[in-house]
Design brief:
Layout (H helix, E strand, L loop, with lengths): L7 E7 L4 E2 L4 E2 L12 E13 L4 E9 L8 E5 L3 E2 L10 E5 L1 H5 L7 E9 L3 E11 L17
InterPro entries: Bbp16
Protein name: Phage protein
Organism: Sulfurimicrobium lacus
Amino acid sequence: MIIDALLQLSAAQAVTASAVSTNTIDLGVARDIGQGEDLYAAFTVDVAPTAAGAATVQFQIITSAAADLSSPTVIGETDAIPITDLTIHRKPIVLPIPSAQLLAQPIGQRYFGVRYTVGTGPLTAGAFSCNIVDNDPGVGKNYPSGFSVA
């Protein structure tokens, strides 16, 4: 999976309560995202989530008229995933984003991002990354990067 820094919505974002991604894509500027091809939101677990109880996390793809992703429209989502299934180095959680769905959004849905919805929380730890990619990263084995970019 090749990662583009401009399409990274979260980079090891700490999540203990429901939250939106730290980054957004401005569809008013990046109007041709995907250029007619399917895109995928690939979520990875950077820090395994923990909680006092049996918490869950749901991953959602959202658009909003506001840059802070408030009052979003959900265009794709996973089921609520138990934290016991969210282990480090697991295969990415992949949500397809058909380009036709992005183009069909109501006028004013200018910003694109993701939301992490914590159920039966809060979490006491947990961090996730989300990258938009143009091929399904759910195949093959994933390894930690072993490097950092300064």
